[in-house]
Amino acid sequence: FIYLATRMSEHSGLLSDVHTEANKNKTKVKLEDVAGIEENLKLEIIEIIDFIKNPEKYKKLNAKMPKGILMEGEPGVGKTMLAKAIANEAEVDFFYRSAADLENPYLGMSAKTVKELFKKARESKNAIIFIDEIDSIGNRSEKNTVSGSGLINALLTEMDGFNENENIVVIAATNHIEKLDKAILREGRFDRKISIPLPNVNGRKEILKVHLKDKKLSSDVDLDILAKLTTEYSGAALAGIVNEASIQAVREGSEEITQEHLMKARDKKIMGVPFK
Ligand code: ADP
Questions:
Q1: What is the pTM for the complete model shown?
Q2: Residue 223 CA, ligand 1 centroid: distance in Å
Q3: For residue range 78-134, what is the model confidence (pLDDT) as tens digits?
Q4: Whose C-alpha lies nearest to ligand 1, atom 11?
Q5: Ligand 1 atom 15: the closest Cα is on which residue?
Q6: CA-to-CA distance for 148 and 111, rounded, in angstroms?
């Protein structure tokens, strides 16, 4: 009982206004910080920023802009970063929630949490609501839970209820589009889908450059080689390599990051040795 009570209070803490408020921030991530995005995708994102920033322009032509955008991509490819950058560039508030946190097995208050989240966004009038790991509630095949479908209904009801003068767009991220509940995919909800692939060799080089921007590099550092040797690495994994290489340099009392530091960090990752 004590365990349950503790968990319940933890969870009700999660639902409090303070927590929701803490997730609301005008973020500082710029589009240019999200490196290695291919040109086509970039153009699509610039258009999304434009319709969130200038809704009037689209309304004048009676163009219906999507209420929801589904972002698909493996973990660490930069979905959250990109959503923050969109909010920042469009100058709207950013509200973050992970769907994995939303589902509350103790109190069944998940629908209420969604309501609160949308209420806050509505108060702000111009906002992006980012729901991470949407598949964790939209997965009927594995989890036909009452709270899961209640949550989906709550989410879709809120989205269906957006009115003309609310400039709110929901961005939902997933790595498993195939597992999503059909109701989420129905027309009129998440009408725009964008896929964010793992970066290609040029993308990896750009991402490494962004993360090495403020570091002192030895003249032997060759990012072309490192980018070639990091096939299938996500942006987050590349950021991890840079961080590990920096730590290694400090450990050795070196003032610069060398190619060897970077390569060792990469090897550690490949061999599954956790970064310390
Ligand atoms: P996702 O939401 O897809 O799991 P995140 O946006 O949380 O990924 O990325 C985690 C971290 O990895 C970011 O904070 C950033 O440091 C790094 N990262 C990921 N993708 C990129 C990218 N394209 N450019 C620069 N950094 C990236």
A1: 0.85
A2: 19
A3: 999 999 999 999 999 999 988 877 765 565 457 788 888 999 999 998 999 999 999
A4: 236
A5: 236
A6: 9
